[in-house]
Design a protein that fits this description.
The chain is built from five helices and 16 strands. By secondary structure, it is of the alpha+beta class. It is globular and about 45 Å long. The protein starts with 5 loop residues before the first strand and ends with a strand.
Length: 254
């Protein structure tokens, strides 16, 4: 099985214009209109390379209980076949498979404990990504799972992810790093008891952490946790944006 990587990240929020301005300032992304018919979809670019998108939650979605959140897209060979495999493994469908004209096909799904992500198959070969470590790219993918062991079986079975090193967090249990065909791209752990539900958290790369945290606060966001030093001689901080969406930052220096 060829391991499936994360290839896209999308923020659905209550104020897309304000969110695009906030993240543009904090992360250094350059917003650009995607030119989609009938809707506003803002591309967030690292240099000239789009790495994420921002759009407004529809009234229907809000009425159904949807709240602002970042979602990661995992590339698969066949979205519909993967939906079948996912549901057989205990996952759920949040939004059935649908075509994005001229772009590809996607489905919004959840793992057996409720953490949401998307499946994606592009119409064209995936464009080359900026070099790893480039500011504005996504530097880490972290799952706070309902249960680490069963979550690992679920995701590795679907996507061919492999275990990297594991770190003992004491009472918090293990923090399991995982790879998608190369170096580790993320980690999984059983969520803390006080965390209301399992979720994915995405870490955005910046040049220096303290300055980025200052921009978060100046833009109306909040620092939730950190700054913290982590293995690999990097620094991280977990934050929320003005609409209450959680995200994280990672940098090689404070």
């Amino acid at each position: 099985m060829t391991p499936s990587p994360f290839v896209w990240y999308e923020l659905m929020t209550t104020d897309d214009v304000a969110a695009a301005a906030f993240y543009g300032d904090v992360v250094g992304w350059k917003p650009a209109d995607a030119g989609m018919t009938g809707m506003r979809y803002t591309l967030m670019q690292a240099g000239e390379q789009p790495v994420a998108g921002v759009m407004t939650l529809s009234k229907e979605a809000c009425d159904a209980g949807a709240t602002p959140a970042w979602t990661g897209y995992v590339a698969v060979a066949d979205v519909d076949a993967m939906v079948v495999k996912l549901t057989t493994a205990g996952g759920a469908i949040c939004h059935p498979a649908q075509d994005i004209p001229g772009v590809g096909r996607f489905a919004t799904v959840a793992d057996p404990h409720g953490a949401v992500f998307c499946l994606f198959r592009g119409n064209q070969e995936e464009p080359s990504q900026p070099e790893a470590g480039t500011p504005g790219t996504i530097g880490w993918h972290e799952l706070s799972a309902g249960d680490l062991d069963s979550a690992w079986d679920f995701y590795s079975g679907l996507f061919g992810w492999t275990k990297d090193q594991a770190m003992d967090m004491g009472p918090g249990g293990a923090y399991q790093l995982f790879a998608a065909g190369g170096e580790a791209i993320g980690g999984m752990m059983t969520k803390p008891a006080q965390m209301p539900r399992p979720a994915w958290l995405y870490y955005f790369r910046v040049e220096a952490l303290d300055a980025a945290v200052d921009r978060v606060k100046a833009g109306g966001g909040q620092l939730l946790n950190g700054p913290m030093a982590v293995p690999g001689d990097e620094w991280v901080a977990q934050c929320s944006d003005p609409q209450g969406v959680m995200f994280a930052l990672v940098a090689p220096k404070r």
